[in-house]
Amino acid sequence: MLSHVHIGIHDFDRAFAFYAAVLPELGWRLKFVERARPWAGWQPGAADRPLLLVGTPYDRAPASAGNGQMVALLAPSRAAVDAFYDLALAHGATGDGEPGLRTEYHPHYYGAYLRDPDGNKLGVCCHHPG
pTM surpassing 0.70? Predict the structure, then answer.
């Protein structure tokens, strides 16, 4: 099980606004925000872990989106995948794969892909039958 995932960003205010808008759609709640550092963390509504963290890199070097790296978030339903994707686009994300079935993964995999405002690749998926 994961403890946490950290996503490096360039502009904290922009990243915070984006993630604060889209993560509640999946039932995640803000755990903390420290603008002086700057970083923020969210946790699932019913659990303490894993945490999803966004912030500037610890070494203070510029953040860069990794080729082949992705954080995939679990959605409770296909409708939540659709809503998350639309909300993310409305808050500055760019599409990288519209919501739909991806049967190459398994028969019920319903997912979407996007890039956050810093170019980090996010997936959102549901594994339940329609």
Answer: yes
Cβ partners under 8 Å of residue 24, min gap 6: none
Q: What pLDDT score was predicted for residue 1?
A: 61
Q: How far is CA 67 from the centre of its chain?
A: 16
Host domain of residue 20? 4-56+69-126
Virtual CA dihedral for 4, 29, 20, 89, nearest 10 degrees?
80
Cα–Cα distance measured from residue 10 to residue 86, given in angstroms and rounded to the nearest whole number: 23
The predicted structure's pLDDT at residue 58: 84
The CATH number that applies at residue 36 is 3.10.180.10
